[in-house]
Design brief:
The structure is a homohexamer.
Chain A: H1 8-21, H2 26-35, E1 47-48, E2 58-69, H3 80-91, H4 94-100, E3 106-111, H5 123-131, E4 136-140, H6 146-152, E5 156-158, E6 170-175, E7 179-181, E8 184-186, E9 191-195, E10 198-202, H7 204-229, H8 234-237, H9 242-252
Parallel strand pairs in A: 2-3, 3-4, 4-5
Antiparallel strand pairs in A: 1-5, 2-6, 2-9, 7-8, 9-10
Chain lengths: ~260, ~260, ~260, ~260, ~260, ~260
C-alpha cells in the first residue's frame, strides 16, 4: 500500500528550487506557509542529534514509514529455519522495503507514534539510509545506538534515545502513506526543509512558493537585523515604515515582497 | 485505500462466537490474550461516556478511520457554489464514506491521534452511526456535543470532550486501514470487545480462542470469588490448590482449562 | 488594578440576549465563533463538579481573579495581633474584594495557573459566591472541600480536587484583569456560556452574534438529527442538499442562516 | 523486610480517636497538618471508584506493599510442576502475605509507581481484602475488573483502570515499608483518613492532634457557612472578626481553637 | 497598565550589590531564599540556549510582558492601509513598548504561558533587546530563529524552539505586571540572577540579603569542597563539625555566617 | 534496612567481566537482555550531564538510596544545639551512610521518584562520591549546582537541574534496597553499564552472559556496518544471509553467536 506519486517532472521541479529553498530558514518558511493558512507544518520536539551549523539546511523529498504498537509476541527465532523465515518476512517489511528503495536526496521519515521506549533505527540502518544517498532521517519516536549514529554524519532528527530495538514495542505497518510527524501532517512526496530549529513539511507547489519568496524575505530580515544591531528601533524597522522600505529599496535595489 | 478483508464466512464465525465472547470481561479477555504473548490490545484511557452496566458488553467488528493534523486553511464556504463543492468533497471524505458503509454490528473506530482540541463526532454523526446499526463508537480523541451524544444511547468511548468540530485541528485521511487506538493496534475487521472497563481489540481467530476458553475462566473466577467472600484464603483458592481444583470439579462438574 | 469596563447599557444588552444565548449549546456557539476566526474560546479540561442536565445552560458576565505561585512564607498567625493584621490584609486581597463585589449573574472566574496542588475555593467561599447571586464559579485550578461544594448547588467548573487551601502554593495578585482560563483568553466583562460540555468565553458583541444566529442553527440541527434518526443519510442531510434545505423551509417555514 | 511497628496500645489509641477523626473532612485535616508544617499528606489524583457520600469517611491503619517494574520474563506456567512452584512462590509474595495478614480496620495501600498499564488488584483480591475486614484499598496505580470491583462495596481509591493483571509490568518487592502514595509519604502504621475528596496520611500522634482539634474546626466552619448562606460577608465571618467570635461563643458556648 | 515601581535609589541599591550577587550561584542563592521561607523563586525548565560558562552570571532588573492565548483571527494585512494600521497598533503593543523602554541591565522577561507552539521572540527582536542594553531574555515559552538567536550572543533562557511567530497562538496583553515564569512569581523590578543552572527571581531587599551573605557561603563551600576532594568525609565537613569550623576560621580568618 | 548481598567472590566475578562488558554498548546489552525476556533494564530519560565520548563506558556495582516526599517541616536549625542534633541525625541518614560506605567501582544510584523540584546532590556530595572511588552517580531526579558538578569530571546521569537542596521536597528513607530508576528495577548489587545512551541494570549472572556474548555481537555489527557503508544492502547483511555468515567466518575466523 503506497500512495507516493512522483514523476520525473517533479524531480525537475525540486531540483529547480533546491538551492533557493535552502536559503530560507525554517522560521521564515514556516511563517510564509502560515500566512497562507497552513498551521501545522512543523514537527514539534524532533531535534537534531547533531547540529548542522548556522545557515546549513537540508531540502529533500519525504519517504514515509508508519509504525503501530506491536501487539503479538516478539520471539527471537529459536532455530535456523525460523531465522530464515524471519529473514524472508523482513525482505518485504515496509521499513526495509522503503530503505532499500530510497533515492538520493530522499529524507527517511518515520511515524513511530512518538513512542520513547523503543529505538526505531540504530547505527546499521542509519548507515544504509546514508549509503542510499538519503539526506536525513526524521523519526517521530526515538533512536538507538545514538553515540554511533551521531558519529556517522547523517543528520538525524528525533525525540530522544532508547537502547531497545523497535520490536520491543512497535511494528511497521505501511510505507509511502500519509503520516503524523509530531503534529505535522506529512504526505509521501512532500518537500522537507530542515535546519537546526527542526523540520517542516510542505507540498511541492508550496515549496516552490517559499523558494520564490523566501530568499527575498531572508534578505530583508538580514538588512533589518543589521539596522537594529546598529541601533535602529523596532518602531522604524520591524516592520519597516514606508520611509524605511524606501531606504531598503535605495540601498539594495530591492522592493518588499507583496 | 482500504484494507478491510472480510468474507461471509467471517460473518458466520463472528456470529458463532458473539454470545460466548460477550460473557467474557475485558479483564479476562485481556489476560488470555496476554498469556499468548499479546501485550497491546487495550485502548488506554478511552472511557465510556455512559456506562453499560455490570456484565453488559458489546462485541463487534472494527471499521476504522484515520485522521491527521489539518495543515491547510479551514475556510467556511463563502458562497453557494463553494458550499456545493465542499458538499461534494464530503461525499467522498473517508469518515463519511465509512459511516455510510457501516453495517449492523460494526463498531466505528477513529484514530484521531489522541488530540483533545477538536471533537471528532457530534450528535448528528453519532445518530447516523447508530441508525446504521453500529454497536458503538470508539474515538482515540474527543467528542463534541457530549450532553446530546450521551442522550442518544449509543455506547461511545473517548478521551473527553471539546465543543469544536474536527476541522479545527484534524482532517480524515483514510478508512479501513490499520490504526493506533490509544496504544492498541487495530486492524479493520478486528473483533472489539467493550465493557465498562474499556475496549480491547483482537483478530477473529483470537476472538474465537477467547470465546472458547473465556467463559470457563469467568465461571471459575466467579466460583473462586464466592469462596473468597465466604472466607477462603488466597493461598487456597487463587490460584486454587489441587485440592480446591478437585473441589471445583466435584461441585460444578468442570475442570480447569489447561 | 482593574480593567473591567461595563456600563448600564452593557447590562441591558446582556439581558436582551440572555434567553437566546441560553438556547445555544457550547458546541454550536464555539463553532460560530470559530467560523469567524476565533480559535481559543473554550476552557479545556474544566469540568462541572456536578452536571447541569441536558439543555441546561448558564449565561453570565466574567469577573476575574488571577493567582501566581506563592513565593514567600505562609505562616499561620501566631497571636491575636498578627491574626488581626492578616484579617485586615485579607479585606483588600483581590479574590476577597472580587467576591464581595460580585453582582447577580456574574460568573466567578479564577486563573490559578492550572495548579492542582492547592484548592482555590472551598465550601465557605463558594457559599458566599452563591449568596452574592453569582451564577457559577470557574476555576483554572482545583477546588477543596468538593463533597460539600457539590452539595451547595452552585455550578462549579474546575480541573479537580485538592484538600489544601490556596495558600499552600498560590497567592492572588489582581482582579478584573485579562486571564488565561485553561487555554481560553478571558477578559473581565466577557460573556461566558456554560453547559455540561464546559465553558466558553466571548466578548459581548460576539455574544450578541451568537444569540442572534445560534438558536436558528440549533433548530436546524435538531431537525437534521430527527431526519438522521429516521434513517436519512449524511449525504442528504449533513450538510443538507438544496433539496433538503427546501424541505426544511417547507416544513418549518425557516431558511438557513447565511 | 517489614518496618511496621504497632503495639496493643497503638490499637487502643486509634480506637480512642476513630470517631472524632471521622468527623473531620480531609480538607480540614489537611489544613491542620499543613499549619504544623506538613505539606505532603494528600495522595494526589487517587479517586474513589465509588463515592462514599457526603460526610462519610474511613479511618484506618496503613498496611503497605511496594511494587517495582517487572524486568524478567512473565511466563505462564507450562505444566503442573511449574504451576505448583509458582503457587508456592506466591505464598510468600509480599502482596499476598500482606493481604493474608490484614486485620480489621486496616487499609490496604499499594505503591505501584503510578503505573497505568497494569491493574494491581482485581475483583478476587479485592474480595479477599474486604473479607479480611480491611476498610479500604488505596492504589497508587490502577485496578482491573473495575466493574466487578465497584460492585463489591469496598471503598477503592486509584488512578484509573486497566484490564491487565499486575504481572504485565509490575512485581511486588516488599511490604510494610515506607512508600510513595501519589506524592504522599506513607509509613506502615500511619493513620489514613479517606472521604470523597481522597485520602490523607499522618502518623498516629498527629492523628490524635487532628482528632482533638478537627471537630471543633468543622463545627465552626459549619456555623460560618450557615452565616454566609444567610447573607453574611467574608469580611465578617471568614475568618470571623472578634465580634463574630463572640457571637459564636454566645450562640454555641464554644470558643475558637487557639 | 504597569506596576513597575523603581526609583533612582533602587538603581543605586542594585549597583551596590551587583558584583557581590554575581559571586553567588543560583543554587546558593536559592537555598538562602528557601531558608527564609521562599519556595518558588526558580524558573523550572527554562534553560540557556547557550551556556554562559562556569562561574559566569547575570544580575539584572526584571521587566515583564504577559501573553495570553490569541482568540480572534490572525490575518496578514491584505493592503497598504491595513498594514499601516497594523504598524500603528504595534507601536503601542505591550511587548514592543516594553522592548523600546528597556534600560541597560534590564532583563527581558516574558510569561507566554509555557506555550511551545509559537516562538515569542526571533533574531530581530532579540537583536533589539540586546541593542537596548538588556542583559538577557527569559521566555516562559519558546523562541524562534534559534540558530540565529544563539549567534547573537545575548543570553536567552527558554523552554525550547518553534519556527512560528508568536501570533499563531499568542497575543501580548500587558507589561510591567506580575507574571508567572515557569513556577516562579516575578514582579516588575525584581532582581534576577542567572547562570547555567537557570534563573531565580527575588525582590531587591532579599537580593541585598543574598549579596551580603551569599559570597561567604560560596567561600565556605569552596573550602569544604577542597577538603572533600582531599579525602575529607561528609561527617566531618558537610556540615562542618565545630572542630572543622575552627579549622576554617584558623585557615581563612573567616567565621560561619549565622 | 539493607538488602545488599555481595561476597568477595562476587567482586572477583565482576572484575573478571569488567573489560568485556565495557566493550558492549548499552544498545547491544539491552537487546541481549531483552531477547532473554528482560524488558525493563533501561533508565529512561536519565541523561549524562557530560558525555563520556564514543565507545567509552562505565561498569560498576549499584549502591542504592531511596527518597520519598518530605512531609514534615524543613526548619533550618535555629541554634548551635539544634545544629549539632541535626548533624548527628545526618550521620545516620541513609544517603550519607551510603556515600560514606561507597567502595571503588561502585555506582551511586538514587531513586528520587523522578521529582524535578529539588536537587538530590550538589557539588560537595558529588565530590565526596568521586573521592570514595565511585565510578558514576545516577539520579532518578535532578541535580543542583550542575555547572560545578559538571566541572568535577565524575559521570553524572540525571533528569535535569534544580538549584534547591533535596530537603525542599524529599527525604531519604533507606539504602541498599530495591529501587525504581526511571522505569528500571534496580537491586543493590546489580551491575550497571553506562554510556552516552544512558544506563542499564542487570544482575551479576546476566552481566556475565552479556560479557560473554556481547563483544562477539559488537564485532559482528561492526563488520556489518562496514559492509553497509561499502554499499551492501540490508537484505544481504542485516541480518546476514547464510552466504554472508560464511563470508564473515572466512574473513574473521568467527562464527555467529547462537
Amino acid at each position: 500500500m503506497s500512495s507516493l506519486e512522483w514523476s520525473a517532472s517533479d524531480t525537475a521541479r525540486l531540483e529547480a528550487i533546491r538551492d533557493d529553498l535552502a536559503q530560507v530558514s525554517t522560521a521564515t518558511a514556516f511563517h510564509q506557509l502560515y500566512e497562507r493558512g497552513w498551521r501545522n507544518t512543523y514537527m514539534q520536539g524532533l531535534r537534531p542529534l547533531q547540529e548542522l551549523g548556522l545557515g546549513k539546511r537540508q531540502v529533500g523529498r519525504a519517504r514515509t514509514v508508519r509504525y503501530l504498537m506491536r501487539r503479538g509476541p516478539d520471539i527471537p527465532p529459536p532455530d535456523a529455519a525460523t531465522r530464515e523465515a524471519a529473514r524472508q518476512r523482513r525482505r518485504v517489511s515496509p521499513e526495509i522495503v522503503l530503505i532499500e528503495s530510497l533515492e538520493p536526496d530522499d529524507i527517511f521519515c518515520v511515524d513511530a507514534l512518538g513512542v520513547t521506549t523503543a529505538g526505531v533505527i540504530g547505527d546499521i540502518l542509519t548507515a544504509r539510509i546514508q549509503a542510499r544517498g538519503a539526506l536525513a532521517a526524521v523519526i517521530h519516536g526515538v533512536v538507538r545506538d545514538t553515540p554511533f549514529v551521531r558519529s556517522l554524519g547523517l543528520p538525524v532528527y528525533c525525540a530522544g534515545a532508547h537502547p531497545s530495538a523497535s520490536g520491543r514495542d512497535l511494528v511497521p505497518v505501511d510505507r509511502d502513506t500519509p503520516v503524523n510527524m509530531a503534529g505535522a501532517q506529512v504526505l509521501p512526496g512532500d518537500i522537507l526543509l530542515a535546519d537546526d530549529e527542526g523540520v517542516i513539511a510542505m507540498p511541492l507547489d508550496l515549496a516552490e512558493y517559499v523558494a520564490a519568496h523566501g530568499p527575498a524575505k531572508e534578505h530583508l530580515e538580514l538588512w533589518i537585523r543589521a539596522r537594529i544591531e546598529a541601533g535602529g528601533s523596532v518602531h522604524d524597522y520591524y516592520p519597516p515604515t514606508p520611509e524605511k522600505v524606501e531606504e531598503y529599496r535605495r540601498e539594495t535595489g530591492r522592493t518588499l515582497h507583496p
